[in-house]
Amino acid sequence: MEPGEGGGGPDDPPGDVKPVRPPVDAVTRRRALLGMGAVAGVAAVDVGGFAYAGGWLRPGALTPPRFADRFEHVYGRHDGFRRNHAKGLSAAGTFSSTGAGEEVCRAAVFRAGSVPLLGRFSLSGGLPDQADAPGTVRGLGLLFQGPDGQQWRTAMINIPVFPDSTPQDFYDRLLASKPLPGTGKPDPARMAAFLGRHPETVAAMKVIKQAPPSAGFADSTFYGLNAFRFTNAAGTTVAVRWAVVPQEAAVAAASPAGTDYLFDDLIRTLARRPLSWRLVLTIGEPGDPTGDATKPWPRQRRTVDAGIVTVTAAQTEAPGNARDVNFDPLVLPDGMTASDDPLLAARSAVYARSFTRRAEEPKTASAVDVSRALR
């Protein structure tokens, strides 16, 4: 999932954009919990993992290497690329805060004003040269560089809930969704057996189908999926989920023209003008699920319009841009902490494992090339 992988410790792999140290509670959580997660399509969607404490593995538990190995088993090995969301495009821009977010979070990024950000648009799956398709889950990773030097990293996708509630469930579904030779589709019997054991996934798929994908990246809403806890200057803590909602008007779907048509359209649009999304924080109430990403919150929950994410430039992935950023969801500024969702520690650990592997591998040019799209 993964739209990115993260860093933040003294042993980070070289090449990652180093975050300023998270607050002590976040550091403690990230050192004490190891896990894994990733992102794939609706047949193999974003995020999954496991957690284990204190560095002691439970017998038979999942490990980050096992999870990364499963992605390689399903998609093949592609040196130098992320194990999931392998196909992508780097971007740069700004976040302009309205100041309204300070009501629920003391993080400096929510003070009125603008901060720089790095971004990455992607498609789910482990194939770096896969053909663009309208139904493939799209990802957007963002790194906000706060005015106090602290970073906030988030990896989002364009579906409103996640199909799995536990890391093990995602791990099992990833194998069930492996395309069969000849058909390119999962084994119907294996997938049916998985769904028969997981009514929560069936319910989540119904929610996902009620929100069909938009025509392209520019008019996609991207959801953070997992819940977090935000604390304001007065010490009040609330549960929060977020999404970035496009300012771009919805457009009719274009006929596919080439294997990279979704990315090419994004590149050409950004060459003409910036693209913007509203960062919307949804405030949870007591009883709203924070540890299960398959369950949506009620539509009537209060929201806070925290500001505008503006992407000003697209960049072919290369050293120094978002290609080398790990969008670890546990790289959080003061005022934000993880919820009880087990997928968060999982995502953090598997992103790190994927980052380490690709950092040590030879690099191949990205299939998405800005200069080629603009010819």
Account of the 3D structure:
Has an organic peroxide-dependent peroxidase activity. The structure is a single chain. The chain is of the alpha+beta class. The chain folds into 2 domains: 28-61; 63-374, Catalase core domain (Catalase HpII,  Chain A, domain 1, Beta Barrel). It is built from 8 helices and 12 strands. The protein has helices at residues 24-32, 64-75, 167-176, 188-197, 199-209, 261-272, 342-359, 370-373, and strands spanning 33-35, 51-53, 87-97, 113-123, 138-145, 151-157, 222-223, 228-231, 237-246, 275-283, 303-315, 336-338. Strands 3, 4, 5, 6, 7, 8, 9, 10, 11 and 12 form a 10-stranded antiparallel sheet that branches. A hairpin with a 5-residue loop joins β5 (138-145) and β6. The radius of gyration is 19 Å and the shape is globular. The two termini are 31 Å apart.
* Helical run tally: 8
- Secondary-structure-based class equals alpha+beta
Rg, rounded, reads: 19 Å
Instruction: Report the CATH topology name of the largest domain.
Output: Catalase HpII,  Chain A, domain 1
Shape: globular
Mean pLDDT: 85
Number of domains: 2
Question: Could you give the distance between the termini?
Answer: 31 Å
Low-confidence segments: 1-59
**Total number of strands:** 12
Strand content: 15-25%
CATH architecture of the largest domain: Beta Barrel
CATH superfamily of the largest domain: Catalase core domain
Assigned CATH class of the largest domain? Mainly Beta
